[in-house]
Write a structure and sequence with these properties.
Elements (H helix, E strand, L loop, with lengths): L10 E3 L6 E8 L12 E15 L4 E4 L3 E5 L5 E17 L1 H7 L11 E5 L1 H15 L4 H13 L4 E5 L4 H16 L6 H7 L4 H12 L3 H18 L4 H7 L5 H12 L3 H5 L1
Antiparallel strand pairs: 1-2, 2-6, 3-4, 3-5, 3-6, 5-7, 7-8
Length: 265
């Protein structure tokens, strides 16, 4: 009897190439909560249709063949419409991209974009396949460089956030991301000279989320980095201040559409 063929991994990450991670997945049910990444995201829709919603709350339908660019920190959610949805998602550190891929010294726009070109989709597909095939960082960088050069017609899905508001809120967002205990909204507001309600409105305007929802998202971003680095799940839950491991699982799964254990493998 032939030995069973091992299923292809859904997630790719390598301690020897920490600047990049990837995912290849199929989903049939809506499962993503609005979230951000701390890296530049490249999404490829292979099959089916999905509804993309960004900070503005305006839904956009993505079709098979579309490639979406989502800069770091941009709020979004993307869920299937009417059945099975097959997609890929590469996440790359923006400093690494500027040094190794965007060789002209210019970065891609800070707005969320969709590119509708079969050549673009094929080029990014080849680059992602090279990661899973273990072809090395130099090969991947070259393939990714070629894919960006082939990027076709651009449609802006979401504008960039208000830079002035974002700058004013930076101390609040940093504290929300780094403090283990639950900060008081009144104290956060006082840090930037706002009332409680002004702060909530400002954070929602800048990020698309309330302060507490943004804090959960920031904790999941940190959790992903710790899990990629090999930290035990229980340790990650404790370090990031979750009530218990069950709470951590619920929040992580709502943002990543996978359990911490499945992501960490």
């Amino acid at each position: 009897m032939d030995a069973p063929v091992a299923a292809a991994p859904e997630f790719w990450h390598d301690p020897g190439f920490p600047e990049v991670e990837s995912r290849r997945s199929a989903r049939e049910n809506s499962c993503y909560r609005s979230h951000t990444h701390d890296r530049f995201a490249i999404g490829i829709i292979d099959e089916g249709r999905s509804e993309f919603v960004g900070r503005s709350g305006t839904p956009v339908i993505l079709e098979a063949g579309d490639v979406v660019f989502i800069p770091a920190g941009q709020l979004h959610q993307c869920n299937p419409v009417g059945g099975r949805w097959v997609y890929q998602m590469m996440l790359a550190d923006e400093t690494w991209l500027r040094d190794q891929v965007w060789t002209d010294g210019e970065s891609i726009s800070a707005a969320i974009q969709v590119h509708r070109s079969e050549k673009t989709r094929e080029a990014f597909d080849v680059a992602n396949a090279a990661l899973y095939a273990g072809e090395g960082r130099e090969t991947f960088a070259g393939l990714l460089r070629r894919a960006f050069c082939l990027a076709g017609t651009t449609e802006v899905l979401e504008p960039t956030p208000d830079a002035v508001v974002a700058q004013r809120l930076r101390p609040v967002l940093r504290l929300l991301a780094e403090q283990v205990g639950d900060p008081r909204v009144d104290e956060l507001a006082a840090m930037v000279g706002m009332s409680r309600f002004q702060l909530i409105r400002a954070v929602r305007s800048a990020t698309g989320l309330t302060p507490i929802a943004w804090r959960n998202d920031a904790r999941v971003v940190r959790a992903r980095a710790l899990l990629r680095g090999g930290e035990p799940i229980a340790s990650v839950a404790h370090v990031l201040g979750f009530a218990d491991q069950s709470h951590f699982h619920r929040v992580f799964r709502a943002h990543v559409a996978a359990t911490p254990g499945r992501y960490r493998r």
